[in-house]
Amino acid sequence: MKNLTIMRRLLWLSFIPFFLWSCEDKMDEHYEVPGWVKGSAWELLSDESMDGQFSMFLEAAERAGYYEIMNGRGLMTVMAPDNNAFTAYLSEHNYSTVQDVPARELKELIGFHLLYYSYNKGSMENFRPEGEGAYDEGTEILDPGLYYKFRTRSSGEPTREVDPLTGKSVTVYHLERFVPVFSHYFFSSKKIDAKKNYEAFYPNSTWTGNDGFNVSEASVKEYGLIANNGYIHTINKVLEPLGSIYDQLKSNTEYSDFLAMYDKFSIYTPNDELTQKYGSALNADTLYLHSHRSPLAPIAMEWYKYDYQRLDTLAYRAYSLFAPNNTALSEFFNSYWKNSGYADYNSLDPLIQTLFLNEYVYSGSVAFPEEIVNGTVTTASGTKYNFDPYASDVNRKMCVNGSFYGLSKIQTPILFNSVSGPAFHEKRFLNFLYAMNSANLLSSFGAENEKYTLLIPDNSAFEADGIFLNYYAEGGKLEQKPEGEWEAVSSDELQRIIRAHTVMSEEVELKKQGTQIVPIQSAFCYWFVKDGKITCSNHFNGVLEPGSTIDPFVEFEEVTNSGKPWANGKTYTYKANAISGLFEAETEDGQGNSLQKALAICQDTRYPYYCFAQLLKQADMISGETIAGLAGRTIAFIPTNETLKNALAGKEIPGADKLMVYEDGSLGLIDSGNGLTSDEKIELKKYISNYFLVASSVPSACYPGSKMENGEYVNYSGNTIVYKDLGTSLSIQLKDGTKVVQVSGKYNYFPFCYNDGCFHFIESLLM
């Protein structure tokens, strides 16, 4: 019988933790409990066996209105400070008795000691939300102890705040606080020293949780006293209700400049659920939650996110803020933005402000000093924080929604110090900053172990392309008017613009004399440099347009970091001209400029490839806007019009004896009534196909110094082309042919590039 009773008790104890949380807030739900459990939490703490050592805590709880809850049958966990702890608290706050503590303060104070639902020692050491009825496919399954926050009955009084977007005063509801519980599992899972890291935040407390846990600043004296409505853990200190990271900023004028900038992005969101529950009692028509515009962390909210159902997120996720004080901010502004056109932080563009602020927020979990030293906690750009988190001038505070570090000096964020730096530093490059950010490519330029060369167009280049930066309440947008109405430039288009201005994995010194070809991020797209000027391969193709007199080359200059190099490469800018404001790159979907299309639709004799295009048609190789048989990217070597005119006159082209070039430059039949036979077309096609290299054998566009190595390449006629890069010129030859053909240097060996290949001109035939 005795064994049966023991088994029943053990069975009951094993089920207590499973009543903790559910998908809804069950703050009024009660459960039947066995009769053998000795009274409620109130009764247990007031029992004569306790010798009155919790009388002050109970007096405070009764004055705060928690008697019914503590004496009821709703499941709860009580963190109970003894009289010694309460006496110390009163003395520290200049109170003589519990009666001296204001009612509102007392309610928040005692509520912070009362946790929803019942947690024994094991549950608090290693809380598992996936085992508490809160599991779903999105639940984060973490190592032991990392679910460290527990919801209490303490919440701040609603506040009246001004919404910066509307200028109206609103009532902000403050969610119930979560109390941090740091167990030995918590620190071992993080692989950091428990004592050193805990006491860094709580210098007036002692780590005693090697076989259990500390509750915020308190040590546990006795674990797991069993009441009929939950558990009691007695503690050696009164728990001070924690404020949010935002509260920490607001309470210290030393960080007022950082807070003022952060608050410019405040968002006040009406909450119907909270309004229905508490609006009437608070005499408020609408209750709001105070957060901040993405990507900034909502540091004013007590919870990581407002979602009762995501227990895993609420128990684990947190923010860490590394806030520079006013002096640090001022010193950084004077060193970085001096003579930049910006007068102060308020004059910075909102996007710059947002990205700057976001560099000082870590949104993963609560960050401890050792994690900062180890580099496991990083900036939004993925770089390590470069400060000593243990230093005496670092203001460390644990908050209800994470951790706070107040800094007296700050490093330059990597994005501000990388090749993207000019876009942050100078107003004239602001549109490019918006383009990088909206294309979701900005962070890639912050990689410290990569090298880049960036060509940044100024704002006028965007505007020459019809792209303007417009501002709205929610921020700035790059927009255009393709059909008379403003619409946002698509992310795909912005990515194409960025690719056209980026060289990956290489720091390139652009030449001021001679010629240079620079491969950029997009395949078969290049920058061409000539005598201190630059163009892109897309713009260079414009020199072939009939009647074009516009020089595609424009001036460029290097943009340095106030005379010093950028951290991960070089940055240049260029002056837009009449062809197009922005350099262009081909689309990745094959929908851009096409070599096949250019040849297939050519009808104007002024194009220098006109005669070659007409031979393709005579050989029945044109199908719509494509060339039959060609696939993928190819390299073509195209004889000039003059070369083909002379070759046709000399009957040198197989299958084309019936063709000629007329006086007006057009190509056609010598005798209009005597067209090419099928055999002649086949013969002509086979010969013309010699001028196209098979795509699979083409590594890149060819030019002196390109990745295309000297060697043999297969053409579409099935023959072999011997290609030679002579350093300053190029040549090709049929392997079994008798003639070496020089590639024309008329265009400085700059290839004419398209999304499906490139071509060079040659001035003699393959024989």
Automatic annotation (TrEMBL):
InterPro entries assigned to the protein according to its UniProt record, in alphabetical order: Adhesion/Biosynth-related, FAS1_dom_sf, FAS1_domain
Top-level lineage group: Bacteria
Pfam families in the cross-refs: Fasciclin
FAS1 domain location: 41-239
Name listed for the protein in its UniProt record: Fasciclin domain-containing protein
Organism: Bacteroides thetaiotaomicron
